[in-house]
Amino acid sequence: MALLAAALTAAPGVRAAADTGTPDLRPPEGASAVLDGLKTYGQAVLRAPDGSVRHVPAGLYEMRVDGGGMLQTYGVGVAGNAQPQARYTESGWSGSPLGGNAEAGRIRWVLEHSYPQLNDLAGLAKAAGAGALTAQSAAAGTQVAIWRLADGAQVEAADPDAEKLADYLQRAAGRLPEPPSSLKLEPGSASGPVGGRIGPVTVRTGAQSVTVTPDAAAAAMGVRVVDAEGKPVTAAANGSRLYFEVPAGTPDGTASVTVQGSTKVPVGRVFTSGLPTQAQIVAGSSESATAARATGIWPQPIVAEAGAAGDGTPLPVTRAAGAAAAAEASSSPEEERLATSGSSAATPVIASLAVGLVVLGGLVVLMVRKRPLDDEDRA
Length: 379
What we know:
single chain
């Protein structure tokens, strides 16, 4: 983050663009999708803090992934309404309602050990001590358990067997780590000088292979996306390292690279929306289209010679560093003290000159007055 801030400060073109709010340097990652709606569900009874009781649907949603693919999801919290046709994007836990939630790992455990990840409903019912479970009651019981862990909701499944499943899942839940992104570039931005390679940017994905596409404007400037040996890259895999190769003399600017692939979105990934709607957490996924983007930034190096090394070679420093050094050399503690008081080091000199001028003026007046008297005495 500090590197990106420094690069934005040093690159006038990038700074001007950021001031207008036009480009967005925050890289997308993973899948984006549209919520179809609640598909497999039962009923739950929600008790509010004020004592009121209401019945709410509880179960599995389906989402259509942009570019192809389907997701099955549960609502993260009981509050809020899931709006059909709302657009969602994949997110890490820190950027979702699960950020800072100590129970997030237990929610993932519930997802991995219940419906639809476990399709053996008879075995799931036996483990929970329930009589029989249908897809609807299993989905309702799983959702209720997630709601309890996510925000401590006072909620029960209306179906007795679904309620037994919810109790079992809440009681048995262990802790699992946050799942990785379906597709991500790390870091999302990199900065460096022209005439070399900027990076690396590392591919993180569950896909066997992803396509690598630099933006057209960058390609027109001669900027290439290459590997560590400088060879152009058009495809990559998990762990591949990408670099922006920027020819010397290229004006200040930025370039982006987009990677795309198809993979299953890991169970436990969260999808959030810009709308005030309920966040969703992945319970199942088909092969789905994913994409990620990273940005390269290259400010021109501004250097000035600052002395020489032992062999006589000039030592370059940035203009900012040179200015700071010059300012430090030209100032003194006394000047700093006077600056804070609204005075300067020239104040004593100015005062002395003023006194001198007053004295000189007095002498002139006395001489002018004395001259007529001297003339009268001679007469």
